[in-house]
Every structure is written in C-alpha cells, then in structure tokens.
Amino acid sequence: MARESTTKTFNISAGERIRAARVAAGLTQESLAREVGVTRSAVAQWETDRAGQIGGNLARIAEILGVSVGHLLTGVSSEGGAAAEHGTELALLRLYRTLGPEDRALIMRTAARLARQQRKARAARLAAGAKPGQGAPGRARGPKQRRR
After folding, report:
1. 91 shares a domain with 62
2. Has residue 110 been placed in a domain?
3. Number of C-beta neighbours around residue 27 at 10 A
4. Whether this model's pTM surpasses 0.85
5. pLDDT tens digits, residue range 6-40?
6. What is the pLDDT of residue 84?
7. What is the full DSSP assignment across 12-79?
8. What CATH number should be reported for the domain holding residue 18?
9. Number of structural domains, the chain?
10. Domain residue limits at 114
C-alpha cells in the first residue's frame, strides 16, 4: 500500500504542486502573483497546468514558496525530503500524528508563518548585502531569549 501512495504522489501535476506549496505557505493567488510580479490570472493558469510564462518564473516561484524547482517539477527534492532526517523531526512527526484536525491546522499555519518570516529575513539580509546563510549582525538570540 505504501508503494501505491508514493505512485499517486508522483502523478500530481506541477500545477497541483504549485497550488499545494502556495496553500502550505499561507499565500493567496493574489499575494503569490504580487511577489512574483505577475497577475493573479497567471498564477491560476500555472495551478491548472495552462501555464504560459512559468519557465521564466519557476525559480522565483520556488524561492517564494520555500521549495525547490525540482519539487515543483517532479515532486522530488534534495531539500525537505519525505523522511525525517533528525531526531527532532521524527519527534515532531510523532506528536503531530497524535493531534486532532484543528490542532494540525494550527500547527500548519504556525509553521507556514515561521517559514515566511525566515524567507523574509533571509531576503532582507541578502538585500542588505549579507551572504546566504549569514545571520544579521547583533541579532543573535540564545535559546532562552525571546523576541518582543
């Protein structure tokens, strides 16, 4: 049975993966369109596999949605794979599976919000001339320090 569900995952179209990634990121078609610099209609066309100019925008779409281009095209990615890679990921997965639908939705919204904040902070650092992966100077917080 696990093999059947894997096969179904690969039968999902690029448009369906774009839509799923957009929804997971908590973005509307309008907000994704604004960030990419296209119309909402263009996003709707991508998501229904009636793409016109998706090729030129694919890297930007992937960046905004926090996924790889490979994931959007094929459903397979070298980043954020299907299997837990660290003990904390596995622990989170186990805890998530014990939750009811409302709590799962809350966790997904929270994770999407945190991922958006990370992408925005990374984009701001890059715009300010920082190298990718380099933190903002003077902004380091230890595990017990909280943002106010």
Report:
1. no
2. yes
3. 19
4. no
5. 334 457 888 888 998 898 888 899 999 999 889 99
6. 53
7. S-HHHHHHHHHHHTT--HHHHHHHHTS-HHHHHHHHTT--SSHHHHHHHHHHHHTS-HHHHHHS--SS
8. 1.10.260.40
9. 2
10. 87-127
